[in-house]
Structure formats: C-alpha cells, structure tokens
Amino acid sequence: MTVSEIMAELEAKGSASIKNIFLKHGVKEPFFGVKVEFLKVIEKKIKKDYALALALYSTKNADAMYLAGLIADDLRMTREDLNTWAQEAVSTNIATYTVPWVAAGNPHGFELALQWIEDQKEHVTVVGWSTLAGIVSLRPDNELNCSQLSMLLQRVAAHIHQARNQEKQAMNSFLIAVGSYVNALSPEAIAAANQIGPLSVDKNGTACKVPLASEYIKKATEKGSLIKKKKKLKC
Q1: What is the C-alpha to C-alpha distance for residues 182 and 146, in angstroms, rounded to an integer?
Q2: Is residue 7 predicted with pLDDT exceeding 80?
C-alpha cells in the first residue's frame, strides 16, 4: 500500500465522534478520528515496513503516525529517526505509546530516553519516561542498568509532584513499571510510591484516572508480573 492509499482509507474511516473523544485526550490536529481497531486491520496487511512507517509519520497526521508505530521495524530505526519522532510527538497518544513502543524495541532506546527526559518540551519528556517504562517491562532484569534505574526512582519520588501534567503521568507509569517488572527494584519502587501517594492531574474533564502506584504495583505483582515480562508493547 502507498501513503496516499492509506491516507484515503484513514479519511474514509474517520469519525467525528471519535475525533472529539481523542481531542479531549490530547490528540492534536490534523487527524481523522480513526479507531485503533481499524489501524490494526491495515497493520495486518502491511506487517513491518520501515520506509512506509517513516513516510506515514512524516505526514504529521496523528492517525497515520499511530499506524506508523505499529508497522515500524524497530531495529532498523536510526538514532536520527527516533529523535525526529520524539520531537514531532505532540499528540499525547503518540508521545505516550507510539514512539516509546518503537524506541523500547531499539538498541538506542535507553540512551535516548535518558536524553529525552532532560528535554524542555513536555511531550519529549513524556516520550522519555514512557520509553523507560517500556524497556523495563520488556527486557530481562540482567540487561537493565539497575543503578541508573534506582537513581531515576529517587528522581521521580523527589520531583513528580512538581512535574508538568502529562510528564507527571509518564513518571508515574515508569514507577509502576519498575515496581511491577524489576525484581531487585520492586521494594524501592513501592517505597517511592508510598512516599508519593496520590497524584493531582488535570484529565481535561474525561473519566480517566491516574492509577495510585502503590496499589497498581501490588496488584501486578500478585498476578506474577515480576516473574513474567511483557512479550510486546504495541497494541
């Protein structure tokens, strides 16, 4: 499929009601309002396509960008590709899911994530923290830099309440991921979660809630998350 063919399909499947919902959740124009289930149909047809993923992402259409992440060949993405994607991830769903999913599957992901969390732009810091969350939930513990992750937990505990809105949520997700998937650091993450307590986050009038990290970690570990890592992030 070509970019023009895909864009035509996306436009045809767009919904005004879905678009309004997405707008409330931080998705930015331009986009058509396409349900993820339809994007998954296109993904099954294409599977992986590095060049097509780059072309779709470059349209800056949020529906096409999300699809780009689904079909991206994570291992072929260059540092420049990933940096470009992070800088252009202005929609909440792209910053929280699409780019982190791809970056977490790339050898440069951890190093880049540490750079991204230092960025002045909030959406880039969200990409960074979300990538770190993805990495710890996917990679075996013996492949993780636990000393670095421990310092990041301390940073979250000290600064999360002063963080910006979306950044705060991404830091919380990182904390939950470490507590749920990294054996050696789970007690430290739980202690940090207890120190932090509930978070105050503006959800723009939606029914979404920010999970209480201590409770979420407890439930996840009881289900066996410390024994079994995730097989994939993309969905």
Answers
A1: 9
A2: yes
- The Cα 25–Cα 97 span in angstroms is 13
Report pTM.
0.97
Phi-psi category of residue 205: left, alpha or beta, with phi > 0 → left and psi -120 to 50 → alpha: left
pLDDT at 209: 82
Tokens of 182: 């990294």
Nearest one of 223, 117, 136 to 185, comparing CA atoms: 136
Identify residue 169 by its one-letter amino acid code: Q
Bond from prior residue into 198 cis (ω within 30 degrees of 0): no
Q: Do 38 and 13 meet the contact criterion of CB atoms below 8 Å apart?
A: yes
Integer CA distances (angstroms), 198 to 129, 157, 178, 206, in order: 19, 12, 18, 18
Residue 217's closest CA among 178, 173, 188, 176? Answer: 176
